[in-house]
């Protein structure tokens, strides 16, 4: 692996081998998502606790301070919306020249395995890897499922994750699910958790994140479970206690409650 690739990965994945990526790219298909109407205000208190920010170029330019030291993972696929017939018909949206101009530490692209756009989105990934490897830029593949949420099982996600790794992704972002170890066991590159089941309590979030870390994930790429929480800073700090501090779910909950009171 070339020095540039190693250096960019080391910015996002810390010395303990773990990471917390904060995604705010939801607007690229959802529009002004609740709690992300003003992305700059949402992320301001969270950036100090983030190992990288996953963001589109438009929001990066308009809402992220250019003097930030937080590494940028640039979302570079899109061209569909939540009001359309489906989310799977994606294309690459950003050139390699733009990626370099924006000084991205990595890029992220969605693939939709098992849909009519499987070939197209996997080719997007392959072409992006071809372009980015030349300049030492890591590609994070996102195993998206669109509106077909029932596909979030270990057999499907293990298949999709392995294919992404085979095509050259340096990191794979995939959903937490039951038997998560089957995904990490079959994926030869680092896996980060994209999310999990709908959670009613903070403890449920801490439990699935802890489970995923114990079963081989190096970290998370969690947005809504953080910035939609009524107490986002205590939430991200408690999650970091699991990821970087080795805390269990109950310890994380205790920290969350302490930080809420101290606020």
TrEMBL record:
GO MF terms held by the record: fructose-bisphosphate aldolase activity
InterPro entries: Aldolase_TIM, DeoC/FbaB/LacD_aldolase, DeoC/FbaB_aldolase, FbaB-like
Gene3D superfamilies: Aldolase class I (3.20.20.70)
Coiled coil ranges: none
Protein name as catalogued: Autoinducer 2 aldolase
Organism encoding this protein: Candidatus Glassbacteria bacterium RIFCSPLOWO2_12_FULL_58_11
């Amino acid at each position: 692996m070339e020095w540039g690739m190693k250096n960019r990965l080391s910015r996002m994945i810390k010395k303990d081998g773990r990471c917390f990526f904060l995604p705010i790219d939801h607007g690229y298909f959802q529009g002004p998502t609740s709690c992300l109407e003003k992305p700059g205000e949402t992320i301001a208190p969270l950036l100090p606790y983030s190992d990288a920010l996953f963001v589109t170029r438009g929001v990066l330019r308009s809402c992220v301070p250019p003097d930030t030291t937080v590494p940028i993972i640039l979302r570079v696929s899109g061209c569909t919306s939540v009001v359309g017939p489906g989310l799977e018909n994606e294309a690459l949206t950003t050139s390699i020249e733009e990626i370099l101009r924006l000084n991205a530490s990595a890029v992220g692209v969605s693939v939709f395995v098992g849909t009519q756009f499987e070939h197209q989105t996997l080719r997007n990934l392959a072409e992006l890897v071809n372009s980015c490897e030349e300049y030492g830029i890591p590609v994070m593949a996102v195993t998206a499922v669109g509106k077909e949420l029932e596909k979030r099982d270990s057999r499907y996600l293990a298949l999709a994750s392995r294919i992404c790794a085979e095509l050259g992704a340096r990191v794979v972002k995939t959903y937490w699910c039951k038997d998560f170890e089957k995904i990490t066991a079959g994926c030869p590159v680092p896996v980060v958790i994209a999310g999990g089941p709908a959670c009613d309590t903070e403890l449920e979030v801490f439990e699935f994140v802890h489970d995923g870390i114990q079963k081989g994930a190096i970290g998370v790429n969690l947005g809504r479970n953080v910035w939609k929480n009524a107490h986002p800073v205590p939430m991200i700090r408690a999650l970091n206690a699991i990821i970087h501090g080795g805390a269990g779910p109950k310890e994380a909950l205790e920290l969350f409650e302490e930080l809420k009171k101290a606020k």
